Amino acid sequence: MLSKIIPVVLLLIGSGAGVGAGIFLRPPPEPPTETIAETTEEDHAEDPQPDPDAPAAEMEYVKLNNQFVVPVVQDKQVAALVVMSLSVEVPEGNKDAVFRREPKLRDVFLQVLFDHANIGGFNGAFTDGNNLAVLRSALRDVAQKALGKETVKDVLILEIARQDY
After folding, report:
1. Cα–Cα distance between 60 and 76 in angstroms, integer?
2. Alpha-carbon distance 120 to 50, whole Å?
3. Domain count along the chain
4. What contacts 24+ positions apart, CB below 8 Å, involve 66-72?
5. Residue 9's pLDDT band (boundaries 50, 70, 90)?
6. b/e for 12-47, b at 16 or more Cβ within 10 A?
7. Do the domain assignments include residue 19?
8. How far apart are the first and last CA of the chain?
9. Which residue, of 53, 69, 134, 139, has the fewest CB within 10 Å?
10. Using one digit for the tens of pLDDT, what is the confidence trace for 116-163?
11. Residues 48, 124: contact at Cβ < 8 Å?
């Protein structure tokens, strides 16, 4: 029993140390290079038609608080653990909606991740672009069902690591 717990504990400690080192060694943010243009009265005139050349609404990225740990089972034994960090892309101002529904979102994400592991998605070249595109698409679909298509635009895989036993 203890021999099965030790690798999991070491994986979690190593992941935490890696995240901590990444945060500590991150370069400082660059100062913004935008200049503020002077506005005139014409700029404040109401325009009933939206400008087709105007950029789409700004997006925010909501990093989910905890990593996802997914066991990879082979021959009724845990052969590996996959650890992932996910972020949800939402229109600006919808960050709170994600945090309010985070338990539901984590549940549907875990179900997709377990299904992906059970069909062999984390075996072999699991970081292949096509393989990750299938996973990302499935995660986006369930997130949009849980929170709405207007709330969730995409799901980003920030980190992924596999620890074999």
Report:
1. 41
2. 47
3. 1
4. 66/106, 67/15, 67/159, 68/106, 68/109, 68/110, 68/113, 69/12, 70/110, 70/113, 70/114, 70/116, 70/117, 70/122, 71/117, 72/117, 72/122, 72/123, 72/162
5. confident
6. eeebeeeeeeeeeeeeeeeeeeeeeeeeeeeeeeee
7. no
8. 14
9. 53
10. 999 888 888 888 888 889 999 999 999 999 988 888 999 999 999 999
11. no
Q: Domain span at residue 75?
A: 57-165
**Cα–Cα distance for residue pair 92/57, rounded to 1 Å:** 7
**Local structure of 161: helix, strand or coil:** strand
Nearest to 102 by CA among 56, 127, 156, 65: 65
How far is the C-alpha of 154 from the C-alpha of 104, rounded, in Å? Answer: 17
